[in-house]
Amino acid sequence: MKASVFIATSLDGFIARVNGAIDWLPPGGGEPHGYDEFIASVDALVIGRKTFETVLAFDTWPYGAKPVFALSTHTLAPAPPGAVVERLSGDPAEIVSQLSARGIRHVYVDGGITIQRFLQAGLIQRLIITRVPVLIGEGIPLFGATHRDIELKHIATRHYASGLVQSEYAVAV
Amino acid sequence: MRKVVYSLTNSLDNFIARTDGGYDWILMGDEVMSEFPKIYASFDTILIGRKTYDQTLLQSPETGQETAGFMEMKTYVFSRTMKGSPNAGVKIISDNAGEFVRSLKNESGKDIWLFGGGILASSLLRERLVDEIGVAIQPILLGSGIPLFPDIGLQVDLQLLECKAYKNGIVGLKYLVKH
After folding, report:
1. What is the pLDDT of residues A105-143, one digit of tens each?
2. B114 touches chain A (CB under 8 A)
3. Closest residue of A to B141, CA-based?
4. Do A146 and B142 touch (CB under 8 A)?
5. pTM score, whole prediction
6. Nearby residues of A112 by Cβ (< 8 Å), 6 or more positions away
7. What pLDDT is attached to residue B171?
8. Which whole-number Å values give the CA distances from A49 to A54, A69, A111, A113, B70, in the listed order?
9. What are the chain B neighbours of A119 within 8 Å (beta carbons)?
10. Alpha-helical segments (H) within A20-140
11. Distance CA B130, CA B122 (A)
12. Beta strands B111-116 and B156-165, pairing class
């Protein structure tokens, strides 16, 4: 199973302000930068509990009928009608083997802590990072501590009229 | 007015050096190096924090003996603790960094290279004295180290000026700081 990350950060590497706010992101997600194509390429999402709670508060459920696996050791709040959400718990290797056994071939891993845990475990193969042209000064970082260097292979970089820069990396094994 | 440009290379997780100052992980390559003469030619002055200055001298012992200043530019080292300049080409700025840089920008000359480190860069960013930011992002996650933008504490809006991907995986970006 392949696991990919598709996420926006500030130039100083944050995915949200300290209080979780993402008001610094371009309104409405900004100009199209490949999200629809990316989401069409995945079979399911794996998100952390905090991300699940964040998207629950959105006006509309952003993942349609795409299966969403929310990682939590506790019962989750109910998802809106039409959403396909299942709670899982376990370490990243266990999650990956469970999903592979269920025939999932490409998963979108989202949420700061979840991304860090999967990266740390060597279970992310592709990073697609869209840099927003702003420094927010402080916030929740995309990347965390690692036990070792993680070498990447640069695949492509694209830039957009609004100043978004999207770089795609494969994680070297 | 002369521009202050914060220009450096960093890991994808926004570190400019390992915790011990090491930069063994930095790739350069001919394609990147070939742009250095043009970059150097645009500057005649360099601003550098004391820790970064020490580190640079430590890792290049031969330049520790220099007398003409850091890479033959007018070099200003920002330090509250250094008593005197280690050589004639280097001037020590011990207080009012912002005021000093503001007056430097009003002098005639080429652009000013804010070499780092992060602490000096953040303090000049807070004082709205940085005009451009250039990063060369290395294809690696270090997991820990010396941060690129420590504790700026405020939002700085940017405008993308340049974007270039190099064959060895470095992504070069240049931004205008919107004041």
Report:
1. 999 999 999 999 999 999 999 999 999 999 999 999 999
2. no
3. A150
4. yes
5. 0.92
6. A15, A16, A48, A50, A51, A140, A141, A142, A144
7. 98
8. 9, 10, 9, 10, 51
9. 141
10. 35-41, 49-56, 92-101, 112-120
11. 9
12. unpaired
Report the residue of chain B nearest A145, measured CA to CA.
Answer: B143
pLDDT at A79: 93
- What separation in angstroms does the CA of B53 have from each of A128, B45, B82? 35, 14, 11
Per-position pLDDT tens, chain B of length 179: 999 999 999 999 999 999 988 889 999 889 998 988 888 899 999 999 988 888 776 555 555 444 344 567 888 999 988 877 767 778 899 989 999 999 999 999 999 999 988 899 999 999 999 999 999 999 999 999 999 998 898 999 999 999 999 999 999 999 999 98
Alpha carbon of residue A9 to chain centroid: 11
- Residue among A140, A48, A139, A25 at smallest CA distance from A95: A48
**Residue carrying structure tokens 């629950």:** A56
- Per DSSP, the three-state class of A161 is coil
A65 to chain B, minimum CA–CA distance in Å?
Answer: 33
Q: What's the first-to-final CA gap in chain B, in angstroms? A: 14
Tell me B64's DSSP state: G
Which of A149, A162, A164 best probes binding to B when mutated, by most B CB atoms within 10 angstroms?
A149
CB B67 within 8 A of CB B88: yes
H or E element, residue A27: none
Residues of A in contact with B13 (CB under 8 A): 13, 141-143
ipTM here: 0.93
Pairwise CA distance, residues A29 & B20, whole Å: 39
Report the Cα A172 to chain-centroid distance in Å.
19
